[in-house]
């Protein structure tokens, strides 16, 4: 299929982004915001990746279903994603769980989130629906997945990542034949089925699905009427279509967007503190596994107006410097030393502080003489002078959220307890 034909399919499609999840494994990071609204990569939020993939793929109609503590997410969407023009057949709809079907139920599951908004989707009359999870980090051209969906005349096409058999135990896993037809779907299996021709790898669901719109609506209405259903794509809709319909797998490697720097397809579920910390600091590598400098596939976001970052003081022991680090606009590195750190917008690092492996969210203020190692700091936290984290595991665990791998999460409430 030509690039022009792929573009035509994208223009006939709507991306429906499921962005209502809390992400409870991120602990206090999601106490006040949904997982898709969590900051990532210095200036973006997690949801920006799914939205940017849609725009860059040529899909200009997008709906975002929100539910858990959605204010910061909705504010971000209003500020950063309000450039769509209806006269160009573009749209961005934010669909909070508002008990539209009845006065008792919020969104009961991922499938129900689409079902409750059928009338809104119908008003745009998209021929195809691309259903996306809003909480993963990756770059993908959805037009290639649409092309496969049409070419195979599938009822559903499921985006899949290739993972080792051990990693696959935590996912929904697809057994496929040599034509990529899904023959079995198993949720978190103890013995995952391997890929044809590659006994060490399995195909795991990414939570990305392509349907023809009218067919999807029929399935969702049947599912909504089933009292035994949990109204979820992964638990109900996809297994049903694997058994009674035509379901195909689409390996991520076929549509992953890579610049010349990226060696392997990159997809991350940053659903734990450890995974979140690691994925952010991976960006500071000399050749990172994810190239966010790729101008051919930009990650769109809300662009705050900020002055450039500034590094000041040049005295021994009080030198503003950052090595193997990313420092965003509005930051002032004032007589502080950073090694492999990621500073979000507007962070202040004061004199004599020493930071290594620090992910600091926007507008963090780090006091003089602080020594921080392997920490994630939530937005707006003021780190007291002389605070030491990362050198005494027992002390860290008493004061902060410390993971088994030794990463500490620091929030304002934790700091307030120290100072009480």
Search tags:
420 residues, Spore Coat Polysaccharide Biosynthesis Protein SpsA, Chain A, 2 domains, nine-stranded mixed β-sheet, 12 helices, 28% strand, globular, glycogen biosynthesis, carbohydrate metabolism
What report would you give on this structure?
The protein is of the alpha/beta class and 420 residues long. It folds into two domains: 282 residues, Spore Coat Polysaccharide Biosynthesis Protein SpsA, Chain A (Alpha-Beta Complex), CATH 3.90.550.10; 110 residues, UDP N-Acetylglucosamine Acyltransferase, domain 1 (3 Solenoid), CATH 2.160.10.10. 25% of the residues lie in helices and 28% in strands. The protein is built from twelve helices and 29 strands. Strands 1, 4, 5, 6, 8, 9, 10, 11 and 12 form a nine-stranded mixed beta sheet that branches. Strands 17, 18, 20, 21, 23, 25, 27, 28 and 29 form a nine-stranded mixed beta sheet that branches. Helix 1 packs across helix 6. It is globular. The chain starts with a helix and ends with a helix. This is Glucose-1-phosphate adenylyltransferase. Pathway: Glycan biosynthesis; glycogen biosynthesis.
């Amino acid at each position: 299929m030509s690039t022009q034909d792929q573009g035509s399919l994208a223009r006939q499609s709507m991306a429906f982004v499921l962005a209502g999840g809390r992400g409870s494994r991120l602990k206090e990071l999601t106490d006040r915001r949904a997982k898709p609204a969590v900051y990532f990569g210095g200036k973006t939020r997690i949801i920006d990746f799914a939205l940017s993939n849609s725009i860059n793929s040529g899909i200009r109609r997008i709906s975002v279903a929100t539910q858990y503590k959605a204010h910061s997410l909705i504010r971000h969407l209003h500020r950063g994603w309000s450039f769509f023009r209806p006269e160009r057949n573009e749209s961005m709809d934010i669909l909070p769980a508002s008990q539209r079907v009845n006065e008792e139920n919020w969104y009961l599951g991922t499938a129900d989130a689409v079902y409750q908004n059928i009338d809104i989707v119908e008003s745009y009359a998209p021929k195809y629906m691309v259903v996306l999870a809003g909480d993963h980090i990756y770059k993908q051209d959805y037009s290639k997945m649409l092309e496969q969906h049409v070419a195979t005349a599938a009822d559903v096409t499921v985006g899949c990542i290739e993972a080792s058999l051990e990693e696959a135990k935590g996912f929904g896993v697809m057994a496929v034949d040599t034509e990529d037809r899904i023959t079995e779907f198993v949720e978190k299996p103890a013995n995952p089925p391997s890929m044809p021709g590659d006994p060490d790898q399995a195909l795991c669901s990414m939570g990305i699905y392509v349907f023809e719109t009218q067919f999807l609506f029929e399935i969702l209405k049947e599912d909504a009427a089933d009292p035994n259903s949990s109204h979820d794509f992964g638990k109900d809709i996809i297994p049903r279509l694997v058994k009674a319909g035509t379901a195909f797998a689409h390996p991520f490697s076929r549509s992953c967007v890579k610049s010349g720097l990226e060696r392997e397809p990159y997809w991350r579920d940053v659903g734990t503190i450890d995974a979140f910390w690691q994925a952010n600091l991976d960006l500071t590598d000399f050749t990172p596994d994810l190239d966010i400098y790729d101008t051919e596939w930009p990650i769109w976001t809300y662009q705050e107006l900020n002055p450039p970052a500034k590094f000041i003081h040049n005295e021994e022991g009080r030198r503003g410097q950052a090595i193997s680090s990313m420092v965003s606009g509005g930051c002032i590195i004032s007589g502080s030393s950073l090694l492999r750190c990621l500073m979000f917008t507007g962070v202040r690092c004061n004199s004599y502080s020493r930071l290594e492996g620090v992910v600091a969210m926007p507008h963090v203020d780090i006091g003089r003489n602080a020594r921080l190692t392997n920490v994630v700091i939530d937005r707006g936290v003021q780190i007291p002078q002389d605070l030491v984290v990362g050198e005494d595991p027992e002390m860290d665990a008493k004061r902060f959220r410390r993971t088994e791998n030794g990463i500490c999460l620091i929030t304002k409430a934790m700091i307030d307890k120290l100072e009480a």
